[in-house]
Amino acid sequence: MQIEPGMTFAEWTVEAEADARRVLDRTTGDVTWLLGSSDDMRQVFNEGYSPADYVQSQLARSVE
Question: What is the C-alpha to C-alpha distance for residues 36 and 13, in angstroms, rounded to an integer?
């Protein structure tokens, strides 16, 4: 899935964090261990991936 046209990186990161919290069933607490660095997130954002796709790929990597 592609990002929404006009979405800023800041909006993208907010959505990625919300999706990570939803998937992990955590309303509070740190999810940065899953999301990674802002540089990693920026690269994926620039490639056009949606926040949900990014979270899913991070989940897949964490279970390898």
Answer: 11
C-alpha span between 44 and 53 (Å, rounded) = 10
Q: Which amino acid is at 50?
A: S
AA letter at 49: Y
User: Which amino acid belongs to residue 30?
Assistant: D
Rounded to 10 degrees, the C-alpha dihedral 33/39/40/41 comes to 80
Q: Which residues have CB under 8 Å from 38's CB, separation 6+?
A: 13
pTM of the full structure: 0.86
| Six-digit token string for 19 | 């999706």
Mean pLDDT of residues grouped by 10 in the chain (64 residues)? 83 95 89 91 94 94 74
